[in-house]
Amino acid sequence: MDINGIRSKAGFICDMDGVIYHGNRLLPGTIEFLSWLEKEEKRFLFLTNSSERSPRELAEKLKRLGLEVSEDHFYTSALGTALFLKTQHPGGSAYVIGEAGLVNALYNAGYSMNDSNPDYVVVGETRSYNFEKIEHAIRLILGGARLVGTNPDMTGPGEKGILPATRALTAPIELATGKQAYFVGKPNPLMMRTALKLLDCRTEDTVIIGDRMDTDIIAGIESEIDTILVLSGVTAMGDLGKFPYGPSCVLGGVKDIPPGDGIPRIV
């Protein structure tokens, strides 16, 4: 797919970490990219596997970084997880290892927090991870609770380098209990179907932009959506040979999408 094919798309599903920012630092071209989306009246949705923040908090974070984006442009793995649990076991309870974005999403889905006999143990990104929480989660799962992870990311990008993500935090619980977690975030088709509904776009009119081959790109391929890999996050050009599939296009970053004076770097 060439750059004109990218620009002709009506809908853009865009990852966040490693695509438009690293931590609290905007990546080059992000402001121009969002300005172009709005100017061209494109439909866009930030679809993130991060479960730490709510859409409101994500909108506020972008505002602090100098971008005005309304809450309805965000969908997180926390919201996807809450929707999945609501459909599976309405009005249930959960023991959560995660942050406020995940807890609030579960509350809003009609779930209560329960550290005695929950229906589910739910794991998301968190900086308050410790041995006591792992030990307690193991006891609950061996007692009958089911294990769910907000996303299958093993690592994520940070300002100071790579950080452990949900799958890495869930692994000790899986190993100790012999139970495999069910992961809701990308590339789970549940997330992609919800994203397309929110975007109100057909698959052939949509493109997904991400920095991870094992979540963003495979999610697009399995949903029959064109894919753009940007090299501004986790995946480097040398990593592409490790995968039996490839993106529709590789760019240096979102800075290469809006028209400009220079020639976009399609790798």
Mean pLDDT: 94
Strand order within the widest beta sheet = 5-4-1-13-14-15
Distance between the termini: 11 Å
Global morphology: globular
Counting DSSP E segments of at least 2 residues, the number of strands comes to: 15
Structural class: alpha/beta
Oligomer class: single chain
Q: How many domains would you count in the coordinates? A: 2
Q: Which CATH first-tier class of the largest domain would you pick?
A: Alpha Beta
CATH topology of the largest domain: Rossmann fold
The DSSP helix count reads 9
**Share in helix:** 25-40%
- What is the string of SSEs from the N terminus onward? HEEEHEHEHEHEEHEEEHEHEHEE
Radius of gyration: 19 Å
Low-confidence stretches: none
> Largest sheet at a glance?
6 strands, parallel
Outline the structure in words.
The protein is an alpha/beta fold and 267 residues long. It folds into two domains: 3-49 and 186-256, 3-Layer(aba) Sandwich (Rossmann fold); 80-183, Rossmann fold (3-Layer(aba) Sandwich), CATH 3.40.50.1000. It is built from nine helices and 15 strands. It has helices spanning 3-7, 30-39, 55-64, 77-88, 100-108, 131-142, 166-177, 189-199, 213-222; strands spanning 11-14, 21-22, 25-26, 43-48, 74-76, 93-97, 112-113, 120-123, 146-149, 155-158, 161-164, 182-183, 206-210, 226-230, 249-251. A six-stranded parallel sheet has the order 5-4-1-13-14-15. The protein has a five-stranded parallel sheet with strand order 7-6-8-9-12, sandwiched between helices. A hairpin with a 2-residue loop joins β10 (155-158) and β11 (161-164). The N and C termini lie close together (11 Å).
